[in-house]
Each structure stands twice: as C-alpha cells, then as structure tokens.
From TrEMBL:
Assembly behavior: The complex is composed of two ATP-binding proteins (UgpC), two transmembrane proteins (UgpA and UgpE) and a solute-binding protein (UgpB).
Annotated organism of origin: Acuticoccus mangrovi
Family: Belongs to the binding-protein-dependent transport system permease family.
Domain ABC transmembrane type-1: 75-265
Transmembrane residue ranges: 7-29, 79-103, 110-131, 143-164, 185-208, 244-265
Protein name: sn-glycerol-3-phosphate transport system permease protein UgpE
Cellular compartment(s): Cell inner membrane; Cell membrane
Length: 280
C-alpha cells in the first residue's frame, strides 16, 4: 500500500517539474535570445528544434551594444525613481494603514473606501489629466515627478490595514496608558510585528514603479530622464527596424531586479497576502 502513494508522489513531482519548465520556456528563450545574433533568433522556428532555445552562436555583443545606447543610464533612473517611490510610499502606506485601522475618527470607513476605490480604478484612466497637473506645477523631467504617481498605493494601504486590524487593540491601549503617543505606539508596538506585511507592501510599490511605462512617458520628455521601460521601447528605429537581440537583452535587465527581489522575499509576500483577508 505504501508503494502506491510514493509512486503517486513521484508522478506528481515529475508532472509539476514539466509544467514549471513549460512556464519557464519564455524566460529561457528571452535569456538565450539576448546571447545570440539577431539573425538567428527566429531562424529555427519552422520546424521547432533544440536550436530554437539553445543558440548556435553565443555572443555578448548585444549587451555591449545595448549599454552603448544609454540604456544603462535609463536603468539607473529607474532604480532611483523606484527607491524614492518605495521609501516615501511605504511611509505613507504605513501611516494611512495605521490611521484607518487603529485610530477612531469620523469618516474613517469612508476614507478607507476611497483607498480601496483608488487601487480599483485603472491608472491609465487618470494618467493623462494627472500628468497635465504635474506639468503645471513644474515637476516634469524630475525624479520626484516620476515617483509621484506611485506614492499613494491603495493596495499597499489595504494590505497593512488588514494586518494592523489583526493586532490586539489591548496592546495599543496599554501603551497609551503608559503615556505613549500614537506615533510611539506605531513605532514601538505595530511596526515590529509587521515586518512581513511591510516587505510585501514595499514589493508592491517597487514592482509597480519599476514596470511603469505610461506615466514616465508622459512626464519625462528629456531623454536623459528616461526610465528603463521607455528606453526599451525606444530601441525601435524610426525606419521600423527592430534589433530583437538588444530588445531581449534589455528585457532581461529589466526582469532581473524584480525577479531577484521576489524570489528572495516571496515568503513574506505570500504570507502577508494570505493573512490580509483574515480580518475585516
């Protein structure tokens, strides 16, 4: 009887590995295509062979040529804007999540409803009028202007609010009886218990800003202020000729940073999202 469950376990494990490899094929193809000549990328698709994935010729010229276009500067811009967004956005999300979960004031639930509606509305629907306001106050072609749209993230607020609701209120009341201010309660009681949700909220802010395309396209008209996704789209020449090898190399660079962070911090993200719906 014991052999059957073991056989089933091995079978399901093999099936899981096969499914995982199928999902990984686009990523593997992107990686190998960034390391092969442009003329070879689509040369082995009819019929499909092992050379469709594994290059005949390996080369780093695509990456060298990509960095020669100024793409490295755009990656640095993306990193600066993302760090600003994640840092300031986390501070705002923590303060807002604490306010709508712990503090008692008129209209608290209405305010939280606005936060929920905020991340339910597609950003593309408000990006154009919002960019016009940013231009009026002179924040175009600035790092703060690029980071502005990602600061008030409703999902990050929701995530932290749901976790804060699960912390016994008696802890805050005890701290208040000892004379602690609400800011001290947040710093000394709630934040030490919220490491996982804070990391998850930070990941949300980071990924949202790192992959942003429309907003940087609207508010960064100076080529020196371009971020990675916009610079990647700009690799298409005016004649319409596309160097797919450089495109794949750029996509690889843009994927490495968030993928690495997600793999490193995924346990915090998954546990925080799963716990966010336990309290209402």
């Amino acid at each position: 009887m014991g052999a059957i469950p073991r056989f089933a376990t091995v079978l399901f494990t093999i099936a899981g590995i096969c499914v995982a490899l199928l999902f990984m094929l686009p990523v593997i193809w992107m990686l190998t295509s960034s390391l092969r000549p442009n003329a070879e990328i689509f040369a082995h698709f009819s019929p499909l062979t092992w050379q469709s994935i594994v290059p005949e010729t390996w080369t780093l010229s695509n990456i060298v040529g990509l960095l020669g276009t100024g793409f490295g500067r755009s990656l640095l811009n993306s990193l600066i804007v993302t760090v600003i967004t994640t840092t300031l956005g986390l501070v705002m999300a923590i303060m807002a999540g604490f306010a709508v979960s712990v503090l008692t004031f008129p209209g608290r639930n209405v305010l939280f409803a606005f936060f929920v509606v905020g991340f339910s509305v597609p950003f593309d629907a408000v990006a154009v009028p919002l960019s016009a306001q940013v231009r009026e106050v002179g924040l175009t072609n600035s790092f703060f202007g690029l980071a502005l749209a990602g600061l008030g993230n409703g999902f990050a607020i929701y995530l932290l609010r749901q976790f804060f609701l699960g912390i016994p209120r008696s802890l805050a009341e005890a701290a208040r009886l000892d004379g602690a201010s609400w800011l001290r309660v947040l710093w000394s009681v709630y934040l030490p218990l919220a490491k996982g949700p804070i990391i998850a909220a930070g990941l949300t802010l980071f990924v949202f800003q790192w992959q942003a395309y429309l907003w940087p396209l609207l508010v960064a008209t100076d080529p020196k202020m371009q971020v990675g996704p916009v610079a990647l789209a700009g690799l298409v020449s005016l004649s319409g000729v596309i160097d797919f090898s450089q495109m794949f190399a750029g996509a690889l660079f843009l994927s490495i940073v968030p993928a690495g962070l997600m793999l490193w911090l995924q346990r915090y993200f998954v546990s925080s999202v799963s716990r966010s719906g336990m309290t209402g």
